[in-house]
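Notes from hallway chat w/ T.B., transcribed later so I don't forget. T.B. wanted the structure written out for a chain they're using in a teaching module, and asked if we could keep both sequence and structure tokens in one place. Agreed to drop them here.
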Amino acid sequence: MNKKLLLLEDDPALSKSLIKYLRINDFEVDWAKDGDEAINLTYTKDYDLYIFDINVPRINGIDALTELREAQDFTPTIIISALTDVSSVTKGFIAGADDYIKKPFDPEELLIRIKAKTKEAREYITINDIKIDIKTDEIFQNDKPVFLSEVQKKLFFSLATNYPNPVTKDELMYHLEKPTDLALRVNISKLKKRLNADIKNVRGVGYKII
């Protein structure tokens, strides 16, 4: 059965091209042009994933997602937005977003992230010799449990759920108690040593697992 997506986007040209691309890749897509319409659709249908823009009419994407989360709707959500500042990204994650993609973006990148969030076997994420139990947040390496600090675990989860794509510095900074470039570098360095993982700095973007 095809996965069902809800797209909240007020740009008709972008929406139509995305819907066409996603349907070609075997996804069912409903289109909401404003936040109020998106929320109403969630009351009548069950979706596997939400794709929300922020700057849309009536109710913006952040407020719409906040309202859904407060109503105990934890459907995986990807925010797509031209807002690239740290404050906007942070607000997106605080509202309950699982991912944040900055416009303009490559549709293929969005597709990879959608598949990662909607795949059938979401109980585990496996990368090389590391396995993450989604339900329990446990990490295993060579079938042996690995224990990380809360911050390092959040950083690794962010990198793992976006694998093989990079995660921006802004997104990773959100998980730090005191977000600075130095704090991020230190935590990534500790993470690499703890897991013996190949985590690469992508210049001008952030970090990725390779």
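Follow-up for T.B.: The first strand starts at residue 3 and ends at 8. Might be a good example for the class.
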